Amino acid sequence: MITVTPETFRLAQTFTIARGSKTAAHVLTVAITRGGITGRGECVPYARYGETLESVTAQIMALPADMTRESLQQALPPGAARNAVDCALWDHAAKAAGRRVWDLAGLPAPGPKTTAFTLSLDTPANMHAAAAANAHRPILKIKLGTPDDMPRLEAVRAGAPNATLIIDANEGWTPEVYANLAPHLVAAGVALVEQPLPAGADGMLAEMARPLPVCADEACFDRASLPGLVGKYDLINIKLDKTGGLTEALATRDMALQMGFGVMVGCMVGTSLAMAPAVLLAQGAAYTDLDGPLLLAEDRNDPLAYDADGVHPPEAKLWG
């Protein structure tokens, strides 16, 4: 039996990126019950990819009750619906076997991973205050993507002088804006820039100088998208809601590394249930950005542990 439940989790504060703002995480929780055992998964339907809570629910409810991880890969395209079902099936398999997911997947036991913490797009003064409040964190990810971003970057760097900075433009710049900003990003000690140009209109990245590493986010989904990123990007951001679950995400990670891409493992704004399988994926990644629960005012029962060592693998009560 498959059930799909929409749930809302309040954010600790308004979260803003170049495309808009949100005050809550709207997620779908999928539960698959077989033989008296229930496995769970979570997804975040994303309007950027044409998804809604209703459309994703319809995709899931149309699946046959005996769906397997293998048949699921052909039944649904990459995206939120397949992600929640795939992760629920992994969770069910682990519970049924009485083993942890990483054992079933043939992966080493995971450990904690240092994660980036995201500062949402705001005025320079507010971003300076947010940076100062989080200056103890080793990696800060800054949401930018407007023509007037330099004062924001300078404010964040002043507020957190020792943090590693990642910039996420969320497709918000033009080639001209990015070309002008890039040297300043380097001078400010930025380590990485995510998706500076719109996906599908990013061909200029192959022709422009890349003075700092560029990571594909909206331009990267699964293995099929990787060949089109060669020559334009240095890293890829793998998110379970884009690959359509842990199964494809692991394969995408392996193929990306073989092709010479660096790997970041990221997330939508979701709960610990959504982050849990991504912690497995993040083992060995160059960058981990699994801060979704840190942005929430409320989370799941038995949530992931976050401390000075980073985000820890899930306890079996939560997932896997």
Describe the model.
This protein has ten helices and 13 strands. 31% of the residues lie in helices and 23% in strands. The strands form three sheets. It has an eight-stranded parallel sheet with strand order 4-5-6-7-8-9-10-11. Strands 1-2-3 form a three-stranded antiparallel sheet. Strands 12-13 form a two-stranded antiparallel ribbon. The longest helix is centred in the first third of the chain and has 18 residues, at 80-97. It has helices at residues 53-61, 69-75, 80-97, 101-104, 124-133, 150-159, 175-187, 240-243, 246-259, 272-282, and strands at residues 2-17, 20-34, 37-43, 117-119, 139-143, 164-168, 190-194, 214-216, 235-238, 262-265, 287-288, 306-307, 310-311. The mean pLDDT is 96. The protein is α/β, with parallel strands linked by helices.
